[in-house]
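Let's sit down with a protein and look at its sequence and fold side by side. We need material for that, and I hope you will provide a protein of your own picking. Once you have written the record down, we can walk along the chain together.

***
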Amino acid sequence: MAKLCDLEIDRTDIVATYENGPNDYDLYCQIMALLNKGLSPYRVGKALRNTRDEVSSVYRKAKAYQKGVLPRCMKGVEKLENNGLLPMNLDNPKLPLWNLLVSANFWRGVRSGDSITSSTNYISVINSDHEEAIKQIFDALGLQFKLAKGIGSRPDYVRYPSERGRLMELTGFSTGRKRYNETLIPMCNELAIASLKDLSTDEQEALVAFLMGRDLMSSLLFFRCKFDETTRISLHSFETKKAAQKQTKAITKLGNQVMPGLEFCSGSKPAHHTETGTYFGRITVVGKQATQEAINKAYFKRLEEVVRRSRQSTVDLNA
């Protein structure tokens, strides 16, 4: 079973999410290698292609690349690398920060569209605490925070750019409604859970896995739970009762494992939404810390720590 130590997303994985990305990337690497050897754009074209039209096409690209113009797939890769998000693996100090964005998007966000190339990625903002938390995450990831007004009764929201959506596809969850693709837990957290289950996992990996699982659960409480007399949380809606049951069981078990100060209890069976025909699980949270004030305070304290460490790592890399 794959674990967190097996997470390895590099530039070639991102390139593969673009239409014709691998071919464009290979040609770009070939052109740049010859340009760096001192060949002129025309000679690069002659070296790589045979027909007049093909030579002319490569010549134009070589001239553009020589001026710093990048193919579309490389623009996305460069943005992610400049933000320290590639390669994304266990050793990347920004993994915890990225996991907070994944968790916020999972519990309070949308990745709509038929495919990754046409997806629209945004996170709903319900109140001022949500706005402040997402703004801090965006700032630390080098993203522009711009709040957009929700249409009608829908909440306000903030979007993030497509190259982050591509990384989200590979580390979090797929484009489209979660009710259809039956995403129970984001992929990076599935790997974290597998690491926690394996007794042979080394201490450092186990610690990162534990914190990632806890951050997913604290994001659930922060973004989705309304603390009233019942402190009950409604989870995602799914087309099948089985998927709702599986998510409820997985989230309840994870919560009790990584948040020992709280007790997570699940209902006997998923609830049924008569208007949409979907099923969703419900979890009740019990404990002295099961208050809105305590949850918000803990979330912002952890967020501050993750942001501080991610910025320290950026300074170290640029030193």
The domain at 93-318 is CATH 3.10.28 (Endonuclease I-creI). The first strand starts at residue 8 and ends at 9. The chain has a mean pLDDT of 90.
